[in-house]
Amino acid sequence: MTTLTSTPDTVTAAGARPGLRATVASALGFTLDFYDLYVAVFVAPVIAGLFFPAGNKMLSLAAAFGTLAATLLMRPVGAALMGGIADRYGRRAAMIVSLLGVGTVTALTGTLPTEAAVGVTAPILLLAFRLAQGLFVGGVFASTLTLAIETVRPRWRGLVSGIVGGGGTTLGSVLASLSFLAATQLFPGPAFNEWGWRVMFFAGGLPVLLSLFVMRFVAESPLWTAGGHTGHPIRTVFGRRHRLILIINVAVVFGIATHFLLSLGFLPTYLQVVNHLPVSTVSRTLVLVNLATLLFAPLTGHLSQVLGRKRVMLTIAAINTLILPVLYWRLAQLDGPSRLLPIAALAVVVSCLTVAAFGSMPIFLNERFPTAIRASGVALSINIGFAIAGLAPTLVNALSGSPEELPMVTIGALIIAGIATMVGLSVAAEPDRALE
Fold first, then answer.
1. Separation of CA 250 from chain center
2. Domain residues of the chain, as ranges?
3. Residue 69 CA: distances (Å) to CA of 83, 177, 207, 369
4. Alpha-carbon gap, residue 47 to 209, rounded angstroms
């Protein structure tokens, strides 16, 4: 018999130090996940040529982003597996396993042979690695977001949501940008295609060592420890009581994830293909762009603590649906290194708006599930939404017959995604602030 028990919200008020440790560990875990994601999109044009050589550049890019989509499609499986572990055996155990898996697969990706060396085996191996990565990343979402939010005091949950969800995202992009910059400087020109992209993946093993060191000092979630376990969390999430909540969450996450993948995630490729910026210039630009976004998610996360989760998320979704397409249209009018300053300025605004949506999303999702199924519910909501959104870059590239058509196809996808988020939020109830 499945039993869901409620745990008083005051259980989390155990002191500032456990909450700080859990926040740091969770943010580092999220950083590791997004470092891998950003590295994959930063080197997508190189991967396209090395693993998917074709006469049509856009088809090669579509194939390269297809491997990224495969990673995202595998995440729901990882969410179900690792989310079940997090709900039944603890957030901390699921987080350690997930971090080890993500770091190992990221580093080993740098060892893969290319199509020129082993033929069709190369893209098959790359696809297999990306599928394995998706399995472990699903576990990162099942543990990091929930562990931190369940540990900190209630009044800091909005801020911590922004620090982990958006801060981790941005820090991952900053580290990937710095890695990109260092690799392009150490391995300029053709050398980057030979070794530079590999070194970027090798470096992904370093954050996991730091994360595991920090985890030594992190206690289990007090809410989970106090009770509220169930033997069948996945079955319960998909049950009649929570099924509609999950569907609405997926719609909300799908729009936010699509905006992310077609803006921050797609920006490195866009700047090279549409704006014709050299790889070295793109790497320098992205470091500055990503540093400029660091405070936006914590700010919007804390605003949700004051103004309400739903109100803040709806406002950001409406702004992004209206403004992001305009910014991308304007970005497409700027060509070459001589227009670098306005290109960089637009890229900063695009990045800030996109990251802002991540501030309140984690706490919004966490407050919609009880403790017994929270890790599974949050992980499935995010990973199913990201899995569907993961098809967007591939479809955008495939539907664009040439680089000149890419901006308008991207704009259409951004508008559709924004509408999906706003519809989902419109029918969602304001979450209960008490975590039970």
1. 14
2. 14-427
3. 21, 21, 24, 27
4. 26
Pull the structure tokens for residue 145. Answer: 């977001």
Question: Does residue 286 contact residue 173 with C-beta atoms inside 8 Å?
Answer: yes
Q: What is the CA radius of gyration of the chain?
A: 20
DSSP string of 2-45?
A: -------GGGG-S-HHHHHHHHHHHHHHHHHHHHHHHHHHHTHH
Locus of tokens 């709900």? 87
CB atoms within 10 A of CB 100: 15
Query: What six digits make up the tokens of 361?
Result: 């999303």
Cβ atoms of residues 26 and 86 within 8 Å? no
On whether the CB atoms of residues 418 and 392 are closer than 8 A, the answer is no
Distances (CA, A) of 162 to 168, 170, 296, 299: 9, 10, 8, 7
With 0-12 / 13-18 / 19 or more C-beta atoms within 10 angstroms meaning exposed / middle / buried, residue 322 is exposed
Residues 60, 54: contact at Cβ < 8 Å?
yes
* Mean pLDDT of successive 10-residue stretches along the chain, which has 436 residues: 41 63 85 81 82 71 75 87 90 87 89 89 89 87 85 92 86 84 88 91 79 80 80 88 95 94 77 81 82 88 93 96 92 83 90 90 93 92 90 80 80 93 93 69
Q: Is the pTM of this model over 0.90?
A: no
Instruction: Tell me the two tokens of residue 2.
Output: 């499945």
Q: Are 357 and 259 in contact (CB under 8 A)?
A: yes
CATH superfamily, domain at 14-427: MFS general substrate transporter like domains (1.20.1250.20)
Dihedral of CA 295/251/400/53: which sign?
positive
**Distance separating alpha carbons of residues 23 and 325, to the nearest angstrom:** 34
Query: For 419, left (φ over 0), alpha (ψ -120 to 50), or beta?
Result: alpha
Report helix angle 391-399 to 374-389, nearest 10.
10
Other C-beta atoms within 10 Å of 110: how many?
17
Q: How many CB atoms are located within 10 Å of the residue 3 CB?
A: 10
d(CA 342, CA 338): 9
CA angle at residue 354 from 418 to 299, to 5 degrees? 120
CA distance 177 to 169: 12
